[in-house]
Amino acid sequence: QVQLAESGGGLVQPGGSLRLSCAASGSILAISAMGWYRQAPGKQRELVAHITTGDSTNYADSVKGRFTISRDNAKNTVYLQMSSLKPEDTAVYYCNAQGTTTGARLYFERWGQGTLVTVSS
């Protein structure tokens, strides 16, 4: 079993900052990639940022220059530092992790439960 636990969401004023965290735990042999997605009301879930084990990153155009994704491989944790937040960043943010389990060495992909980020004055 592999679980993801997210934290760090909340209410912030436009122009403010927040940091999201997501820790993976359980029968993990290795994590190949982790990422953050978001879903605003009435919209489809979209990729925000993605990072591989080798620290290769990918960002949505809408967040480039404002958001930074990073990871601590030793802790199986991924972070999303969000700055210069805008009302259109309001959404539920979901963590995603892909990797290999211990034992049978099966591929896994897991999603966090989501954390709400609200940008409003």
Give short descriptive properties of this protein.
121 residues; mainly beta
Overview of the molecule:
The protein is mainly beta. It is built from no helices and eleven strands. It has strands at 2-7, 10-12, 18-26, 28-39, 46-52, 57-59, 67-72, 77-82, 91-101, 107-111, 115-119. Strands 2, 4, 5, 6, 9, 10 and 11 form a seven-stranded mixed beta sheet that branches. A hairpin with a 5-residue loop joins strand 9 and strand 10 (107-111). The N and C termini lie far apart (40 Å). The mean pLDDT is 96.
At a glance:
The protein is built from no helices and eleven strands. With 121 residues, it is mostly beta strands.
Mean pLDDT: 96
Strand residues, percent: over 45%
The tally of strands reads 11
Low-confidence stretches: none
N-to-C span = 40 Å
Shape, please? elongated
Give, in order, the helices and strands: EEEEEEEEEEE
Rg measurement, Å:
14 Å
Q: What does the largest sheet look like?
A: 7 strands, mixed
Tally of contiguous helical segments = 0
Helix content class: under 10%
Summing up helix and strand content along with how strands pair, one would put the structural category as: mainly beta
